[in-house]
Specification:
The protein is of the alpha+beta class. 30% of the residues lie in helices and 23% in strands. The protein has two domains: 160 residues, Nucleoside Triphosphate Pyrophosphohydrolase; 211 residues, 4-Layer Sandwich (Metallo-beta-lactamase, Chain A), CATH 3.60.15. Strands 1, 2, 3, 4, 5, 6 and 7 form a seven-stranded mixed β-sheet that branches.
Length: 447
Amino acid sequence: MSKIIDAVSIVITCGNEIFAIQRQNFLKAFPGYWAFPGGKVEVGDDALFINHPLTQGIDPRLFGAIVREGMEELGIDLGLETINGNVEQIDTLGLAVTPDFNPFRFATHFFRFRLKEKCTFVVDHNEAHVAQWISSADLLKNFDQGLILAVPPVIKVITTLGTNPNVQTIPDLNFSYDKENHVPYIESLKSVRQLMPLSNTLPPATRTNAFLIGDVGPKILLDPSPKDHEEYLKLKNTIAQFGVDKILLTHHHPDHHERSVMLAKDLNVPMLMSRDTHQRLINIDAHYFENIELHFLKEGDIVTQWLGREVLVYEVPGHDEGQIALAPEDMSWFIAGDLFQGVGTVVIGDDEGDMSKYFKTLEKVIALNPKVLFPSHGIGLGGVNILETTLEHRKLREKQVLHFHQQGLNEDQMLEHIYAKLDERLWPYARKNIQKHLEKLKTDNLI
């Protein structure tokens, strides 16, 4: 089990207003997420603790971390603000521990500082895209309109203070779920429900996201693919609280449809997919979709609604010829399947993969400029920076392959040079990427 690191989150309020930050989209950790100032506790933070009636009972390490983070991120000394009387109350709101399925775990202590007068903050805009005072009610309204991407504890703070600004503690701030009977489930963006069953996917990923979309209109479940019968039952228990009207497959790879047919029959619901995905699956098993109602999707089809916006289909070939994605008409989000990975690297291989099409698809989605991207493996990310980075990485890899080809190296030699640090168990997939780069170079008449 990974080590749990103490951290603090500083919720600063003045009257009914709250100071909130949206992180820059280019950051590696939680890009585009709304949050409160804070960070991990460091050695020596206890030296910044102050003895004061308002700090009684607070761990000196945690209070010292608050003071240090306030100075680093906001340019204010909350210790001095407390001594000078501008802090009228400090509330220990609650504790949120990162769930055990996450490789990096924090025990984040949420503290609320109630100010008599607003401070003037000096915000580092290399970290914060937005930093503003906003009423708690308006912040909640923004979340309800699908404008805020945040981790579950932050959402709990936003929703609680938005309805009860004077609350002093927030019960159940910690993320938890019934491990014996359910799969993990988060809603980091309003009504984009992300269920995370364990799946038979490629390492380092261990789960494939099954998204549940649709409020006005049919409820669409994407890519349910639990790894075994036990995980299947947990997934069924989890979706039972919402209901499912249709099951949609983004593409034909096993970690996106395993046991989906069983689920469709159990729930007596139709299945949606591209014609290419259907054809590839019945080529493997002619009876795969027997006794299931099927609907085939193409670019521009409307499948449901999200917060009053129509949700459309987008064709995104490259990783898989038949892969499709979903997005609302205003591009508030884009469920991209395996177009990119939050965990690991996309494989372009076999007859369904095409590196030229993959490049064009990345360019297409970058041009659409969705506000939030959701991968099949990992969490949602703000903006298209990850796609721009992925495209640049692929272009760099293509230059490497071209260089080594011109030097007379074969695929095995390229593999050893380019992927020397990669786990050798993944070399067969890395080889496929090299082969697809070579095919693209031939198509482009560069070799």
